[in-house]
Specification:
One of its GO terms (molecular function) is kinase activity. This is Thiamine diphosphokinase. Keywords: Kinase, Membrane, Transferase, Transmembrane, Transmembrane helix. The protein is mostly beta strands and 187 residues long. The protein is built from three helices and 14 strands. An eleven-stranded mixed β-sheet has the order 4-3-2-1-5-6-7-14-9-12-11, covered by helices on one side. A three-stranded antiparallel β-sheet has the order 8-13-10, with no helix packed on it.
Length: 187
């Protein structure tokens, strides 16, 4: 890291890993590049320990001592995602990347408190209010609940809650709700 990169505490998105196999190794490496606060559980801690990656927090149902020092250990109460989000919000984190099998409905209730990105099996999910505009290549699949759409530009409907970009360029989605809407995009 060059001297002009000053990283302040909680500046980089934290990383919650609920299912390490939900993201390929290359993308996981990119997430780990900036040394985020890493949160694991009983199912994912061994992945990090085996790779000698420093874990900051573990939510566990077991009484285990880990060979890595300075891991903060908390009892798992509501599942890794809500437990970890509560922890991050309490410790003033502003953003988090979550690696899991699928976005959980509970995430929408946290969106006003912390910026959430979910990475799952080749899809990046973001939570957006009002509208979404982004440049995309032709043929990119976008996933959005149809019942939340007011209008769209640059997309063709292909399957329930699934669209594909018609050409290279900007796509635009406008929503019919003030709530956060989960949008998935291929990565």
């Amino acid at each position: 890291m060059s001297s002009h990169h000053i990283i302040r505490e909680n500046q980089e998105p934290a990383l919650i890993v609920a299912a390490y196999e939900a993201l390929d190794e290359e993308y996981m490496g990119q997430l780990l590049e900036w040394s985020p606060t890493i949160i694991a559980n009983d199912d994912t801690i061994d992945f990090f320990l085996a790779a000698d990656i420093k874990v900051d927090v573990v939510f566990s149902k077991q009484e285990i001592t880990y060979r890595q020092e300075q891991i903060k250990k908390f009892p798992a109460k509501n599942g890794i995602i809500p437990d970890a989000l509560d922890y991050l919000i309490q410790h003033d984190h502003k953003a988090v990347n979550i690696v899991c099998d699928a976005p959980d409905d509970i995430l929408a209730s946290y969106c006003a408190l912390i910026n959430i990105v979910v990475l799952s099996h080749g899809i990046r999910y973001v939570y957006i209010r009002y509208h979404y505009e982004k440049w995309k290549q032709a043929g990119t699949r976008i996933f959005v609940p149809e019942n939340r759409l007011k209008s769209l530009v640059g997309l063709k409907h292909t399957n329930p809650n699934e669209f594909v970009t018609e050409q290279d360029g900007f796509i635009y989605l406008e929503f019919n709700t003030d709530e956060h809407v989960c949008i998935g995009e291929e990565i």
